Amino acid sequence: MSTGLIIALIVIVAVVAIAAAVLTLRARGPRHGANLKRRFGPEYDRALTRHDGDTEAAERELAQRVELHGDLRARPLEPAERERYEAGWAAAQERFVDSPREAVADADRLLADLAAARGYPDGGQYEEQLAALSVHHAHHVDGYRRVHRVAQARVNGGHEGGAGTEEMREAMVEARALFDELVRPSRHDDGNHRGEPEGHRAGTAGHGRSHTPSFLHRRQAKES
Protein backbone atom coordinates (compact mmCIF):
# COMPACT_ATOMS: atom_id res chain seq x y z
CA MET A 1 0.00 0.00 0.00
CA SER A 2 1.43 3.34 -1.03
CA THR A 3 2.21 6.08 1.48
CA GLY A 4 -0.27 8.40 -0.20
CA LEU A 5 -3.09 5.88 0.19
CA ILE A 6 -2.24 5.33 3.86
CA ILE A 7 -2.32 9.07 4.49
CA ALA A 8 -5.62 9.37 2.67
CA LEU A 9 -7.12 6.58 4.79
CA ILE A 10 -5.89 8.25 7.98
CA VAL A 11 -7.45 11.55 6.92
CA ILE A 12 -10.75 9.84 6.11
CA VAL A 13 -10.83 8.05 9.48
CA ALA A 14 -10.05 11.32 11.29
CA VAL A 15 -12.82 13.17 9.45
CA VAL A 16 -15.33 10.43 10.23
CA ALA A 17 -14.30 10.45 13.91
CA ILE A 18 -14.67 14.24 14.13
CA ALA A 19 -18.05 14.14 12.41
CA ALA A 20 -19.25 11.42 14.79
CA ALA A 21 -18.09 13.44 17.77
CA VAL A 22 -19.92 16.54 16.53
CA LEU A 23 -23.13 14.57 15.97
CA THR A 24 -22.85 13.01 19.42
CA LEU A 25 -22.42 16.40 21.07
CA ARG A 26 -25.41 17.77 19.17
CA ALA A 27 -27.51 14.79 20.22
CA ARG A 28 -26.48 15.25 23.83
CA GLY A 29 -27.02 19.00 23.82
CA PRO A 30 -30.67 19.17 24.99
CA ARG A 31 -29.88 16.92 27.94
CA HIS A 32 -26.53 18.23 29.10
CA GLY A 33 -24.77 21.26 30.48
CA ALA A 34 -26.54 24.58 30.35
CA ASN A 35 -29.74 23.01 29.01
CA LEU A 36 -29.99 20.65 31.95
CA LYS A 37 -29.25 23.45 34.38
CA ARG A 38 -31.93 25.62 32.80
CA ARG A 39 -34.47 22.82 32.79
CA PHE A 40 -33.90 21.55 36.32
CA GLY A 41 -33.03 24.80 38.09
CA PRO A 42 -32.78 24.05 41.84
CA GLU A 43 -32.89 20.31 41.16
CA TYR A 44 -29.63 20.67 39.21
CA ASP A 45 -27.96 22.16 42.28
CA ARG A 46 -29.37 19.44 44.54
CA ALA A 47 -28.06 16.73 42.22
CA LEU A 48 -24.68 18.41 42.17
CA THR A 49 -24.59 18.52 45.97
CA ARG A 50 -25.69 14.89 46.20
CA HIS A 51 -22.79 13.90 43.94
CA ASP A 52 -20.27 15.98 45.93
CA GLY A 53 -19.80 18.51 43.14
CA ASP A 54 -19.23 15.90 40.43
CA THR A 55 -20.84 17.67 37.47
CA GLU A 56 -20.59 14.68 35.15
CA ALA A 57 -22.31 12.35 37.63
CA ALA A 58 -25.03 14.89 38.42
CA GLU A 59 -25.77 15.56 34.75
CA ARG A 60 -25.77 11.85 34.01
CA GLU A 61 -28.46 11.35 36.67
CA LEU A 62 -30.58 14.23 35.39
CA ALA A 63 -30.20 13.13 31.78
CA GLN A 64 -31.44 9.69 32.79
CA ARG A 65 -34.51 11.26 34.37
CA VAL A 66 -35.25 13.09 31.12
CA GLU A 67 -34.70 9.91 29.13
CA LEU A 68 -37.14 7.96 31.35
CA HIS A 69 -39.80 10.61 31.95
CA GLY A 70 -39.33 13.42 29.44
CA ASP A 71 -42.08 12.14 27.15
CA LEU A 72 -44.61 11.58 29.93
CA ARG A 73 -48.11 12.57 28.82
CA ALA A 74 -50.13 14.13 31.60
CA ARG A 75 -53.73 12.95 31.89
CA PRO A 76 -56.26 15.79 32.33
CA LEU A 77 -58.42 15.74 35.43
CA GLU A 78 -62.18 15.53 35.29
CA PRO A 79 -63.92 18.50 36.96
CA ALA A 80 -65.17 16.28 39.78
CA GLU A 81 -61.64 14.99 40.39
CA ARG A 82 -60.26 18.51 40.48
CA GLU A 83 -62.89 19.61 42.99
CA ARG A 84 -62.17 16.59 45.18
CA TYR A 85 -58.44 17.30 45.27
CA GLU A 86 -58.98 20.99 45.94
CA ALA A 87 -61.34 20.17 48.81
CA GLY A 88 -58.79 17.72 50.20
CA TRP A 89 -56.02 20.31 50.12
CA ALA A 90 -58.23 22.93 51.74
CA ALA A 91 -59.03 20.45 54.52
CA ALA A 92 -55.32 19.72 55.05
CA GLN A 93 -54.58 23.45 55.30
CA GLU A 94 -57.35 23.96 57.85
CA ARG A 95 -56.14 20.98 59.87
CA PHE A 96 -52.66 22.49 60.06
CA VAL A 97 -53.78 24.95 62.78
CA ASP A 98 -54.35 22.27 65.41
CA SER A 99 -52.48 19.26 63.98
CA PRO A 100 -49.62 20.40 61.73
CA ARG A 101 -47.91 17.01 61.60
CA GLU A 102 -51.09 15.22 60.57
CA ALA A 103 -51.81 17.96 58.02
CA VAL A 104 -48.38 17.46 56.45
CA ALA A 105 -49.05 13.72 56.24
CA ASP A 106 -52.40 14.47 54.54
CA ALA A 107 -50.62 16.76 52.05
CA ASP A 108 -48.07 14.03 51.32
CA ARG A 109 -50.77 11.47 50.54
CA LEU A 110 -52.78 13.97 48.52
CA LEU A 111 -49.81 14.93 46.32
CA ALA A 112 -48.95 11.27 45.72
CA ASP A 113 -52.54 10.50 44.68
CA LEU A 114 -52.85 13.63 42.53
CA ALA A 115 -49.58 12.97 40.70
CA ALA A 116 -50.69 9.41 39.99
CA ALA A 117 -54.05 10.67 38.73
CA ARG A 118 -52.22 12.98 36.31
CA GLY A 119 -50.32 10.01 34.88
CA TYR A 120 -47.09 10.07 36.88
CA PRO A 121 -45.78 6.86 38.45
CA ASP A 122 -47.84 5.58 41.36
CA GLY A 123 -47.17 7.06 44.79
CA GLY A 124 -46.11 3.63 46.00
CA GLN A 125 -43.02 4.17 43.84
CA TYR A 126 -42.10 7.41 45.57
CA GLU A 127 -38.56 7.81 44.21
CA GLU A 128 -39.68 7.17 40.64
CA GLN A 129 -42.66 9.48 41.05
CA LEU A 130 -40.44 12.22 42.45
CA ALA A 131 -37.95 11.80 39.59
CA ALA A 132 -40.73 12.10 37.01
CA LEU A 133 -42.18 15.16 38.72
CA SER A 134 -38.74 16.77 38.82
CA VAL A 135 -38.49 16.58 35.03
CA HIS A 136 -41.70 18.57 34.53
CA HIS A 137 -42.02 20.56 37.78
CA ALA A 138 -38.41 21.01 38.86
CA HIS A 139 -38.94 24.40 40.47
CA HIS A 140 -41.57 23.15 42.92
CA VAL A 141 -40.98 19.44 43.46
CA ASP A 142 -38.89 20.00 46.60
CA GLY A 143 -42.03 20.89 48.53
CA TYR A 144 -43.29 17.35 47.95
CA ARG A 145 -39.90 16.00 49.01
CA ARG A 146 -40.05 17.98 52.25
CA VAL A 147 -43.58 16.99 53.28
CA HIS A 148 -42.85 13.37 52.41
CA ARG A 149 -39.72 13.39 54.57
CA VAL A 150 -41.64 14.71 57.57
CA ALA A 151 -44.56 12.34 56.97
CA GLN A 152 -42.34 9.27 56.69
CA ALA A 153 -40.30 10.24 59.74
CA ARG A 154 -43.53 10.54 61.71
CA VAL A 155 -44.53 7.03 60.65
CA ASN A 156 -41.08 5.54 61.31
CA GLY A 157 -40.33 7.52 64.45
CA GLY A 158 -37.20 9.10 62.94
CA HIS A 159 -35.58 12.33 64.07
CA GLU A 160 -37.24 14.26 61.20
CA GLY A 161 -40.49 13.55 63.03
CA GLY A 162 -39.37 16.28 65.39
CA ALA A 163 -39.49 18.96 62.69
CA GLY A 164 -40.71 22.25 64.10
CA THR A 165 -43.98 23.88 63.20
CA GLU A 166 -42.27 26.59 61.18
CA GLU A 167 -40.40 24.02 59.10
CA MET A 168 -43.65 22.14 58.46
CA ARG A 169 -45.43 25.39 57.57
CA GLU A 170 -42.74 26.20 55.00
CA ALA A 171 -42.98 22.68 53.58
CA MET A 172 -46.77 23.01 53.22
CA VAL A 173 -46.50 26.39 51.46
CA GLU A 174 -43.86 25.08 49.05
CA ALA A 175 -45.78 21.86 48.43
CA ARG A 176 -48.91 23.83 47.57
CA ALA A 177 -47.05 25.41 44.66
CA LEU A 178 -46.64 21.93 43.18
CA PHE A 179 -50.24 21.08 44.03
CA ASP A 180 -51.42 24.16 42.10
CA GLU A 181 -49.45 23.14 39.03
CA LEU A 182 -50.82 19.60 39.10
CA VAL A 183 -54.46 20.41 39.83
CA ARG A 184 -55.17 23.42 37.64
CA PRO A 185 -56.53 23.11 34.10
CA SER A 186 -54.02 24.16 31.49
CA ARG A 187 -53.48 24.34 27.77
CA HIS A 188 -51.43 21.16 28.12
CA ASP A 189 -54.43 19.08 29.20
CA ASP A 190 -54.64 17.70 25.69
CA GLY A 191 -52.03 15.21 26.89
CA ASN A 192 -49.04 16.92 25.35
CA HIS A 193 -46.46 17.14 28.12
CA ARG A 194 -43.29 17.34 26.06
CA GLY A 195 -40.52 19.85 25.67
CA GLU A 196 -40.04 22.45 28.39
CA PRO A 197 -41.16 21.40 31.88
CA GLU A 198 -44.62 22.71 32.72
CA GLY A 199 -43.42 24.59 35.80
CA HIS A 200 -40.79 26.38 33.70
CA ARG A 201 -43.31 27.30 31.00
CA ALA A 202 -45.86 28.48 33.50
CA GLY A 203 -43.43 30.75 35.30
CA THR A 204 -44.00 31.15 39.02
CA ALA A 205 -46.56 29.05 40.84
CA GLY A 206 -49.34 30.26 43.03
CA HIS A 207 -51.77 31.08 40.24
CA GLY A 208 -53.86 27.94 40.70
CA ARG A 209 -57.40 27.80 41.97
CA SER A 210 -56.61 26.74 45.55
CA HIS A 211 -55.96 29.41 48.15
CA THR A 212 -53.38 29.41 50.91
CA PRO A 213 -54.96 30.64 54.14
CA SER A 214 -53.16 33.48 55.83
CA PHE A 215 -52.30 31.31 58.82
CA LEU A 216 -49.90 29.31 56.63
CA HIS A 217 -48.00 32.53 56.04
CA ARG A 218 -47.68 33.20 59.75
CA ARG A 219 -46.46 31.23 62.73
CA GLN A 220 -49.85 30.57 64.29
CA ALA A 221 -50.05 26.79 64.06
CA LYS A 222 -49.81 24.74 67.24
CA GLU A 223 -47.30 21.95 67.78
CA SER A 224 -48.92 18.52 67.67
Automatic annotation (TrEMBL):
Keywords: Membrane, Transmembrane, Transmembrane helix
Compositionally biased region (Basic and acidic residues): 185-201
Region feature (Disordered): 185-224
Transmembrane segment boundaries: 6-25
Name of the molecule in the record: Secreted protein
Source organism (scientific name): Streptomyces prasinopilosus
